[in-house]
Amino acid sequence: SEEYDNIGLQDYEGAFELTSYLLRLGHRSIAFFCDQEQPLASNGERLRGFQDALLGFGLSFCRDDFYYLPENKTMRHEVLRQFVRKSGKRYSAAFFVSDYYANEAITIFYSKGLRVPEDISVTGFDDNIYARLSRPALTTVRQLPEEKGRQAVSLLMKRIRGEETPVRSLALPTELIVRESTRAVIPELPLPLP
Q1: What's the rounded Cα separation, in Å, for the pair 192 and 194?
Q2: Beta strands 30-34 and 6-9: pairing type?
Q3: How do residues 62-93 score in pLDDT, each as one tens digit?
Q4: How far apart are alpha carbons 135 and 181 in whole angstroms?
Q5: Helices H, strands E: what count in the chain?
Q6: Inter-residue contact 139 to 181 (CB < 8 Å)
Q7: Residue 123 forms beta bridges with which residues?
Q8: Which of 23, 78, 127, 157 is deepest in the core (most CB within 10 A)?
Q9: How many domains are there within the chain?
Q10: Antiparallel, parallel or unpaired: β 30-34 and 93-96
């Protein structure tokens, strides 16, 4: 097999941290939304981080909590509308593999009466423009695309100059960014007897 350079992210670690954050807020029923039916590469790592964080809190991942988002926008919107109708009240949080899909979902959720974060907390991944333009602003995992670009160009320039450069695989760090799209869910305490 051919070896190649890969400048990626700590997708697993970012997803693990984001999911652990939701769990610390009290969420125990979290839907996972992905644009691949069988998540590969970065989405596979994000799913694995999500699953391992659940295990760390004594919860198991159920395939019923996985929602596939088709590439076709009309079909994707229908999946989100169906989620609200059939399952929206069953979940207190939703993890989206990208900010774009999370932002799109927030719009659909509001149009169907599911409020963010009052009814459901929503998170994304990337911390791109969609996270900052979302209303409410999106809790997400920040990656640094500029640094990925710098590392890739540096490696390419070394190869062009003929420098001896071993094949590299580099995973750049991620950072949890907490904004207004998530909230703590605290179970109602029983009222004291009179």
Answers
A1: 6
A2: unpaired
A3: 999 999 999 999 999 999 999 999 987 899 99
A4: 8
A5: 6, 8
A6: yes
A7: 95, 139
A8: 127
A9: 1
A10: parallel
